[in-house]
């Protein structure tokens, strides 16, 4: 109908295009950052460079349109047993060391449509000098888990099909899935939608079961550990936050009000780091008062035990009528990690044998619009 508002989901080709543009910037930013991840480099400097790469990429697109765009997940670089959300302040930063197991994640949004990406690697690992042992095992386990999940994310499959497969894969690699890690459906300005996939179900942690459907978008997050899979809070300063939209409060400090105004302008709905602000004094004062009155959600730095290792992969997935599209790819060089462990479960092997669509979904042929439902279902199975 004339004047009717267009759909805000991925059934709208314009929305799909925004996801793809955001995904391209996320991928390019991560690839540029990985080239800088050398032994001796400051983690703080790497995090700020990652965010800078995002901002530079965004500045080159939609230049003539009044459209919101920005960081959706600030660059975080978490080493060895640290699980995530490590974006340290300059005076509290450490450096990367040779043979550290490093996890890098970041996210971009265009008009509130979010594309996130994350990878794991070992500093100095190459196909010529591959890593072996637990580091190789846990990275291969995480990669195998996300590759399996991507092939299971098809209409009609249950979210718990992924959780069940994760458990089998982790066991085969002598690892555990991490408790408390969720993958969420994402929508415009919403990074943690109600539909979710749990990495590991335990007696007090579970999600509602449902089947995947056409026209859904997800940030798929897989985290595997050589430890027990029970993350603990650390002494590292929390620097990553998100605005709680349902909470308002008249802040007392002028510095806090100034800081909150900047957050509302630059990060009204999605995540940010203290490193994204030039005035660090105002930022620290503002965060303290905002947290006191529940204006922000905090994302603390969690970790496994000191000698354990954690690997993670994160991608953005669009379930379209024409197939499942991996908008942000899995960045991994398997030849740099040599493991003697293999998948033994026959169902998982069968799933991994299915080809995975990793690029844009093919455009529809207008002449074939009148396909029968049976034919459409057949097409989905073959994609």
CATH class categorisation of the largest domain: Alpha Beta
**What is the N-to-C succession of helices and strands?**
HHEEEEHHEEEEEEHEHEEEEHH
| Mean pLDDT over the residues | 91
Sum up the overall morphology in one term.
globular
| CATH homologous superfamily classification of the largest domain | Creatinase/methionine aminopeptidase superfamily
Structural class: alpha+beta
Largest beta-sheet characterization: 6 strands, antiparallel
Give the C-alpha Rg: 21 Å
| Number of E strands | 15
**CA-to-CA gap between the ends?**
32 Å
Total number of domains: 2
What would your notes on this structure say?
With 383 residues, the chain is of the alpha+beta class. The chain has 2 domains: 13-237 and 300-382, Creatinase/methionine aminopeptidase superfamily (Creatine Amidinohydrolase, Alpha-Beta Complex), CATH 3.90.230.10; 240-297, Arc Repressor Mutant, subunit A, CATH 1.10.10.10. Helices cover 30% and strands 22% of the residues. It contains 8 helices and 15 strands. The strands form 4 sheets. Strands 5, 6, 7, 8, 14 and 15 form a 6-stranded antiparallel sheet that branches. It has a 3-stranded antiparallel sheet with strand order 1-3-4, with helices on one face. It has a 3-stranded antiparallel sheet with strand order 2-13-9, with no helix packed on it. Strand 3 (101-110) and strand 4 (113-122) form a beta hairpin. Helix 1 (13-34) runs antiparallel to helix 2 and helix 3 packs antiparallel against helix 4 (159-172). The longest helix has 22 residues, at 13-34. It is globular. 44% of the residues are buried. Residues 18-187 form the Peptidase M24 domain. This is Peptidase M24 domain-containing protein. Residues 353-383 are annotated as: Disordered. Residues 364-374 have a biased composition (Basic residues). Belongs to the peptidase M24 family.
């Amino acid at each position: 109908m004339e004047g009717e508002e267009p759909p805000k989901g991925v059934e709208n080709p314009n929305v799909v295009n925004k996801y793809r543009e955001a995904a391209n910037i996320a991928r390019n930013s991560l690839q540029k950052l990985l080239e800088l991840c050398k032994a001796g480099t400051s983690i703080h400097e790497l995090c700020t460079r990652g965010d800078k790469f995002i901002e530079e990429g965004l500045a080159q697109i939609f230049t003539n349109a009044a459209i919101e765009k920005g960081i959706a997940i600030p660059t975080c670089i978490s080493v060895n047993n640290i699980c995530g959300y490590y974006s340290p302040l300059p005076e509290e930063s450490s450096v990367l060391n040779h043979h550290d197991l490093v996890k890098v994640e970041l996210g971009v949004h265009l008009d509130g449509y979010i594309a996130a990406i994350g990878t794991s690697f070992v500093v100095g690992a190459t196909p010529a000098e591959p890593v072996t042992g637990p580091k190789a095992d846990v990275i291969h386990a995480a990669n195998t888990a996300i590759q399996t999940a991507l092939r299971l994310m098809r209409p009609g499959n249950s979210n718990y099909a992924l959780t069940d497969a994760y458990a089998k894969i982790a066991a085969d690699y002598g690892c555990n899935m991490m408790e408390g890690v969720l993958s969420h459906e994402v929508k415009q300005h919403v990074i943690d939608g109600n539909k979710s996939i749990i990495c590991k179900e335990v007696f007090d942690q579970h999600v509602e079961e449902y089947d995947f459907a056409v026209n859904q978008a997800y940030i798929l997050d897989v985290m595997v550990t050589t430890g027990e899979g029970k993350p603990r809070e650390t002494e590292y300063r929390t620097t990553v936050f998100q605005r709680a939209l349902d909470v308002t409060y008249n802040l007392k400090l002028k510095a806090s009000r100034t800081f909150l105004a900047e957050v509302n302008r630059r990060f009204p709905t999605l995540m940010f780091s203290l490193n994204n602000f030039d005035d660090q004094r105002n930022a620290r004062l503002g965060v303290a008062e905002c947290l006191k009155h529940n204006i922000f959600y905090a994302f603390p730095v969690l970790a496994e035990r000191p000698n354990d290792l954690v690997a993670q992969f994160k991608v953005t997935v669009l379930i379209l009528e024409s197939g499942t599209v991996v908008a942000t790819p899995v960045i991994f060089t398997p030849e740099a990690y040599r493991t003697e462990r293999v998948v033994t479960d026959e169902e998982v092997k069968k799933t991994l044998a299915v080809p995975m669509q990793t690029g844009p979904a093919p455009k529809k042929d207008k002449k074939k619009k009148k396909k029968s439902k049976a034919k459409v279902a057949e097409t989905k199975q073959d994609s």
